[in-house]
Each structure stands twice: as structure tokens, then as C-alpha cells.
TrEMBL record:
It comes from the Bacteria. Residues 401-424 are annotated as: Disordered. This is Tetratricopeptide repeat protein. Residues 82-200 form the NB-ARC domain.
């Protein structure tokens, strides 16, 4: 806002009238907070000059080195006036930064360093009229008051003229807008202007913007200790200090206020002080010292807003999530989308909200507290309730719109939300849905927690269900477990048995992915019992399908086959082709594990065709990945292209779980084809991603293959470590087939690095487990390893008999190992005398 130029003309006219009538007058110099007397009858006084009016630098100035360097770099001599606008929220330390940087530049601007307060947000003062500011500046240059012209333009012209050829640094503090600043700017080269404002002065041409955010945590702690004149002496005090500056929102003004209070109480300690602040009901009230209250600083910005913008600002204090966008804001404020966009940007320009990314806005913690305080005192309870209900309706509606694009699990269509939002984003593709879910994840979980807290259990249950597919794909699974557990509890407490069964199924799915198979089986059996009792055939099919996968991992292949076949029959009876494709894929995986590769390939190809017909790219990626596993098991290594296609699909879909599995498969193929560097890179990526997600099965598999790779390259200590960790994981998971496989790999390591007897003992363990779970491929590998150990210790006939059994199994399976094992058998047969007593040995 700019006061009309006439105010400056009127001030000069009044000054001259007073001189004529009374013989003297006083002129207030804004930059100096003083009056200069002028006497008519006496001779004109000597010009008064005040060319060095910078405030003192703050001794405790901390951090902001990047910003200081930016100003210092921009202060190099140039042919234009250098202008920097330092903008930020109240209390961010804009003035302190400007003065600190200016003090370091005094030598470069020897003709003057002037500081002008423009009072945009000074309690008890109106913003300075630029004409009055120019009068003060001209006086500071020594201009006779009687020579100061009337009018803004004339004064600005004289100001620019007097600065010609001078190197002057001008700090314009707390500006309203560009219109207040523009007339005060020098017109010639060699000058530097630093402008501070709570507003982003986007209309000030040629200015270099320098937005000032909160302090980094380390600098915030250092600022507190400097002002408090005390440092933490224990770990608990260091933690308390971190908590204090966090509660201050890392805002310099807030930190300075609390540190100043702490400095005057030598008997206080940091731990108690942190607890007191955390427990304070009125945190803003705690952040006050005289006229420097943080709340008062916020008040000045808030009161300058138009009425409708004030209302929206208060509404934003009701938002329970970390940030917002125009759609959520439109729902919250019950305003059109275009108005929401315009008002958010206006609040951003005023530094009452921040914008961490394009289209995203958030309130600083202290400003959020301030906004909530305002809405509690200004808005009736029913209006606040309606606003939060509109917001939750928006998130629920949009989440349930996004979910069908992400899930590969059959589920009933949700009932419509009570009130449909007026404006929602377009989510018509997988990528749009995934992007929205990623961005809004924090808001959605906050919405669930808020709904639970106010006993809106149905809403919390539905929102959790809408997030289920996304959480399975993205993790972290501990968060998913907590949400599904809460949903199951809410459903049980409210008597919604159908919702309880669905939540237990989702919880079982996540437990399955974390490898806790006993708990998974218990949850799914509960869900299955509820679904059957309720006649929920779709829910029953889903529970049987996941139980089948659990039985597969524990090596109970007959039970796995029965459960998956029952699921397949149910899905077909319901006409649910997505469920049918999933059941076919599950059956294919079991056939693969039992060594029936042709049947496995047939089932997986049928599943792949169905997924493609349905346009389900997640299912297509899963089927491609598993089909690739079948094909490379038979030695068809070019089939790695299927795993690569699966990896590309997973990445395009944002399916990090699938990505980890495909990376592991590709790494295994590269190892088998002798490309060890590529294998190491792929397997390490799979290992890191699976650990990030909490996918312990993929982690165990990646560790095992890294161990096999290190065995092949002769790094035996590293190989032993990887295989030991893999074995521990498989045992914790109850995956007997995985345990047998890693024991075979350990046997190969011992055969290469230790003695045949040590390797033989491990191979025998692998053989026992492989037979226990009917894993024909692992049994053949254990037999081959055993035969090689017998050959090395001189039991050639036993080695022959055992190896013949292994080769026969490999050939029956069509396994990739058949050729190399047959060649080794031929070599043994050519160099081993016949021993009739060992012909029937099987190791």
C-alpha cells in the first residue's frame, strides 16, 4: 500500500506555514528517529548530514552464510543499481540479515550507508509515505529543508540527482510493496539497495529475490546457546535444546525470546525448560518479551488481509495434514477452485504460508498455531466442524477414485461419499493416481488419524482400505500394519464384521510381505471364517488366495495348490476375471516350485493373457516376472528380457516391491551368464530396495545370490557373511525351500574354500529339507553337490550313483543345470572303476 503523494506535499506546506507563523518548526527524520529544528529569522543553519545510520550489528548473528554470500557477491561494482529483496515470514530475521550483510560492505560504499524504516508492520505506526521518506533521506544528505521540493516525483528526482557519482548503500526495512520502494531507489550505478519485506516484491523490476526461511536445526541450537549464554552439558540437555528450537519452529525471533528468558534464570535447566514449553497450552503466549511477542508480529500481517482472506487463513489452521493444495483448500473453505488458487498465492506472497513445491502450500508450525487460535475465537464451532467434514469428504472421495487404478486385488466398489466435492483433480490413469497418492500420503494418513480421534470409524476404515494397494506398492509396511490394525479394531468395536474381515485380509497381506507367516496365517484364517459366515464369497476367495501363497512359502505345496484352486473356482463363479488371473498366477508359481516347468509356463501365460485383456499392467508385470523365472530355470537365459520388461513396467507404475524382485531376478540371470559386474550391481540394488521396503524375502534372496557371486569370484569371507545372513532370514521367515536353497549355496562355498567333509554335511542338510518340501530342483542340486564331495574324498562309486540320480532329476525337470552335470558325470564315468556295492547309493 502507498499513501497518496499529497500527504508529502501537505507536510511540506504545513512546515512552511508553521515557519512563517511562528518563526521555527521541526522536521522528523525517519531514519534517525529525531527532529531537526528550522528557524526562519536566524541565518540558515549549516547542512546536517547523517550518512551512516545503520543499526548495530547483532553480536549473536548466527548462520545464514549462504544468504550473506549471495548479497556480498551481488554487491560487486556494476553499471546498474544492485537491488536485493529479502522476504520472509514474521520473525525470520530479515532485518538482522540485511544489517549484518550491510555492515560487511561499508568499505565498498564510502559515501553513505543509510537505514530507513518503512514501518509496514510496526505496531502503533502507519506505513511511511515514500514522499516523507524521501524528505528524510534528502535531509540526511544535508539538503536545506527549505530546498526540499513538493511532490513525490520532484523529491525522487532530487534524490537521484544527489546520488549521482556516489557509492551509497541503502537499507529499506519492512516495506509494504514495490510502490513504496520504487521512488526511493537510486538512479545511478554504484549503489546497493537491500529491501526487507514480509511480502514477495515480485513487481520490483531488476531485484534479486532472497527468500528467507527458518534456520537449519544446528544453527537454531547455536543461536539459542549464544543468547542464553549456556551450553548443554549432557546428552539429555542436548536433546532438550533440540526440542526447544523445534518447538520454536526454528524461527529466530521465537528462539531469541525463549533464550533471553532462559538467560535471566540461572537456576533453570534445559530439560525442565523444554518440558515446560512442550506442555504449554498457549505456546504463542510463552513466546513473548515486551513488544517483541511472536503473536503480535503475526497479528500485524493478519490484520492487513482482506476479510475473505482472513477467513480462509483461519480455515487453513483447521487442516490436520502437513500441507495443502488448491483442491483441498477449495473444499475446506467452501470456495471455487479459482478463488482457492488466487487466495493461496496471495497468502504466499505475504509470507503467511510457504510453498515447498509447485501448487503445494503449508503453514509454519507457529503460524498454524496462531491460525488455530484465531479460528477458535472467530468462527463458531459448527462452522469449524463443517469445514473439516468438507475436507475429509474431499480426501475420501479422491482416494477412492485413485485406488482402482492401483489395486490388483478384487474388492467391492465403495459406496459414494456423503457429499461430493465441488472440485477434484482428474485421476483417470495409473500414473495420475499414483502421483496424487504419493503427494497426498501425509494428508491421507493424517485424515485417518483425525477421523479415528473423533470416532468417525467408518470413514477411517474406508480411507485405510483406499490406501491399502498404494501402501503395498510403496511401503513402509510398518505404517500399513498400524493402519490396518487400527481399521480392524474400529470395525470390531462398531460391529461391522464385513469391514473387519476386509481389514484382516489387508493386514494379512502386509504381514505376508514382511515374512511373518504364522501371524499371516492366523489373520487370514480369521478373515476366512468371517467371510464364510457372512456369505462374502469375494472376501473368501481373497483369503484363500493369500493363504495359498503362505502355504507355498512354508513348502506345503499340496495345501497351497488346494487353496489356490478353491480361490480360482470362486473367482470364476463370481465372474471376477482379475481374481481369476491372480489365482492362475499363484498356481503357476507353485508348479514352478515343484519343478513342473511346462505346467507353470502354461498357467502363467494364461494369467498374462488375462491381465493384458483387462489392461492390468501390475498383473502383467507380475506374470512377466514369474514367467521369466520359469524360463531361466530351464536355461533359457535370453528370457531375461521378460524380467527386464517386468522391471520397466514396475518402474513406470511406481511398484517398488515388484522393482526389487525384478532386480533380483535380473541379477541372478547376469550371474548365471557370467556377467559378474552387472550381477553385483543389480543384486545390490535389489538388496537396498528390499531393505528400504522391509521385504525380507527379497532381502534373503538377494543376499544369497550375492554370496553365490562372491563364491564364484573367490571372495570367500564376504560370501560366508552374505550366506549366513540369508540363512538366518529364511529360518526366521519359516521358508524351508529358501533355507534348502541357501544351504546348497553354502555347500558350494565350503567345497571351494574348506574341506569336502564340511561341505558334505551342509549338502546333506539341504537334501533333507528339499525332500521335506518336495522341491525337486533343490533336491537335485543337493545331490549334485554331495556327489562332487564324494568324488573329492575318493568315494568314486558313491559319487557316480548320487550324480546319476541328480542328472536324471535335472533332465526330468528340464533344468538349466542338466548339461553341466551330465558332462561331469561323463568325466567321472571315464575315470572311475565300477564298484557294484555303491551302485544304489543316493547320497
Amino acid at each position: 500500500m502507498t499513501t497518496p503523494a499529497g500527504r508529502g506535499e501537505d507536510a511540506t506546506a504545513r512546515l512552511r506555514a508553521d515557519v512563517n507563523a511562528h518563526g521555527d518548526a521541526q522536521v522528523y527524520v525517519a531514519g534517525e528517529n529525531q527532529y531537526i529544528s528550522i528557524t526562519q529569522e536566524a541565518p540558515a543553519p549549516a547542512p546536517v548530514t547523517a550518512l551512516r545510520t545503520l543499526p548495530r550489528d547483532v553480536a549473536s548473528f548466527t548462520g545464514r552464510q549462504v544468504e550473506v554470500d549471495q548479497i556480498l557477491t551481488g554487491a560487486r561494482p556494476s553499471r546498474v543499481v544492485a537491488i536485493h529483496t529479502i522476504d520472509g515470514m514474521p520473525g525470520a530475521g530479515k532485518t538482522a540479515l540485511a544489517v549484518h550483510a550491510a555492515r560487511q560492505l561499508t568499505d565498498q560504499y564510502p559515501d553513505g550507508q543509510l537505514f530507513v524504516r518503512l514501518n509496514a508492520h510496526t505496531p502503533g505506526h502507519r506505513p511511511v509515505d515514500p514522499a516523507d521518506a524521501l524528505a528524510a533521506l534528502l535531509l540526511s544528505l544535508g539538503i536545506d529543508p527549505r530546498s526540499i521540493p513538493d511532490g513525490l516525483e520532484a523529491r525522487a528526482g532530487l534524490w537521484r540527482d544527489r546520488l549521482t557519482g556516489r557509492r551509497v548503500l541503502l537499507v529499506l526495512d519492512d516495506a509494504v510493496d514495490h510502490a513504496q520502494v520504487e521512488p526511493l531507489l537510486p538512479g545511478s550505478e554504484g549503489c546497493l539497495v537491500l529491501v526487507t519485506s514480509r511480502h514477495r516484491l515480485t513487481a520490483l523490476d531488476g531485484a534479486a529475490p532472497l527468500p528467507l526461511g527458518i534456520l537449519p536445526a544446528q544453527d537454531a541450537s547455536l543461536l539459542f546457546t549464544r543468547l542464553a549464554h549456556r551450553k548443554p552439558t549432557t546428552v539429555s540437555e542436548s536433546e532438550a535444546l533440540r526440542r526447544i528450537v523445534e518447538l520454536c519452529g526454528f524461527l529466530p525471533l521465537a528462539i531469541a525470546l525463549l533464550a533471553g528468558r532462559f538467560a535471566h534464570h540461572s537456576h533453570w535447566n534445559l530439560t525442565d525448560y523444554a518440558e515446560e514449553l512442550a506442555a504449554a497450552q498457549d505456546r504463542l503466549g510463552e513466546l513473548a518479551a515486551g513488544d517483541r511477542a511472536v503473536e503480535a508480529a503475526f497479528d500485524m500481517s493478519y490484520r492487513a488481509l482482506p476479510h475473505d482472506r482472513q477467513r480462509l487463513f483461519r480455515c487453513l489452521g483447521l487442516h490436520f495434514g502437513p500441507d495443502t493444495d488448491a483442491y483441498a483448500t477449495a473444499a475446506l473453505g467452501d470456495i471455487p477452485l479459482t478463488s482457492a488458487r488466487r487466495e493461496l498465492e496471495a497468502l504466499y506472497l505475504d509470507h503467511l504460508i510457504d510453498s515447498p513445491a509447485t501448487g503445494r502450500y503449508r503453514l509454519h508450525d507457529l503460524i498454524r498455531t496462531y491460525a488455530r487460535t484465531l479460528t477458535d475465537t472467530h468462527d463458531p464451532a459448527d462452522e469449524r466442524e463443517q469445514a473439516t467434514q468438507r475436507l475429509m469428504d474431499y480426501y475420501q472421495h479422491t482416494a477412492e477414485t485413485a485406488d482402482p487404478h492401483l489395486t490388483d486385488t478384487p474388492r467391492p466398489a465403495p459406496r459414494p461419499v456423503g457429499t461430493s466435492p465441488a472440485a477434484v483433480p482428474s485421476l483417470t490413469s495409473h500414473q495420475q493416481a499414483l502421483t496424487w497418492m504419493r503427494v497426498e500420503r501425509g494428508n491421507l494418513t493424517a485424515c485417518i488419524h483425525h477421523a479415528t480421534a473423533i470416532a468417525q470409524h467408518s470413514r477411517a476404515i474406508r480411507l485405510t482400505a483406499a490406501l491399502a494397494a498404494f501402501l503395498r506398492l510403496q511401503g513402509p509396511w510398518d505404517e500399513a500394519i498400524a493402519l490396518h490394525q487400527s481399521a480392524a479394531t474400529s470395525a470390531r468395536l462398531t460391529g461391522d464384521r464385513l469391514a473387519q474381515a476386509a481389514a484382516l485380509r489387508e493386514l494379512g497381506e502386509v504381514r505376508y510381505m514382511t515374512g511373518n507367516l504364522p501371524v499371516t496365517a492366523d489373520l487370514l484364517n480369521q478373515a476366512l471364517g468371517l467371510s464364510r459366515a457372512l456369505g462374502d464369497r469375494l472376501g473368501e476367495a481373497g483369503a484363500r488366495w493369500t493363504l495359498g501363497r503362505v502355504r507355498y512359502l512354508t513348502g506345503d505345496y499340496p495345501a497351497a495348490t488346494a487353496l489356490l484352486q478353491q480361490a480360482l473356482d470362486l473367482y470364476r463363479a463370481l465372474g471376477d476375471r482379475l481374481g481369476e488371473a491372480g489365482a492362475l498366477r499363484g498356481l503357476g508359481h507353485v508348479r514352478y516350485a515343484t519343478g513342473d516347468y511346462p505346467a507353470a509356463a502354461d498357467l502363467l501365460k494364461r494369467a498374462l493373457d488375462l491381465y493384458r485383456i483387462l489392461g492390468d499392467r501390475h498383473g502383467e508385470a507380475n506374470a512377466l516376472w514369474e514367467l521369466g523365472q520359469v524360463q531361466y530355470a530351464t536355461g533359457d537365459y535370453p528370457a531375461a528380457s521378460l524380467a527386464q520388461r517386468a522391471l520397466d513396467l514396475y518402474r513406470s507404475l511406481g511398484n517398488r516391491l515388484g522393482e526389487a524382485g525384478a532386480l533380483w531376478t535380473l541379477g541372478r540371470v547376469r550371474y548365471l551368464t557370467g556377467d559378474h559386474p552387472a550381477a553385483a550391481d543389480l543384486l545390490q540394488q535389489a538388496l537396498e530396495l528390499s531393505r528400504t521396503l522391509g521385504d525380507r524375502h527379497c532381502e534373503a534372496n538377494a543376499l544369497q545370490d550375492l554370496g553365490r557371486l562372491q563364491t564364484a569370484t573367490g571372495d570367500y569371507p564376504a560370501a560366508a557373511d552374505r550366506l549366513r545372513r540369508s540363512l538366518t532370514l529364511f529360518r526366521e521367515l519359516g521358508d524351508v525351500q529358501g533355507e534348502a536353497e541357501v544351504l546348497n549355496s553354502t555347500g558350494a562355498l565350503l567345497a571351494a574354500s574348506a574341506t569336502p567333509d564340511e561341505a558334505l554335511a551342509v549338502y546333506r542338510q539341504a537334501l533333507r529339507l528339499a525332500r521335506q518340501v518336495h522341491s525337486a530342483l533343490d533336491e537335485a542340486r543337493a545331490l549334485e553337490g554331495t556327489a562332487r564331495c564324494y568324488a573329492r574324498i575318493g568315494s568314486h562309486s558313491t559319487a557316480l550313483a548320487t550324480l546319476r540320480r541328480a542328472v536324471a532329476d535335472y533332465q526330468r525337470l528340464g533344468a538349466a543345470e542338466a548339461s553341466a552335470a551330465a558332462e561331469y558325470l561323463a568325466t567321472l564315468e571315464a575315470h572311475t572303476p565300477t564298484d557294484p556295492q555303491a551302485q544304489n547309493s543316493t547320497g
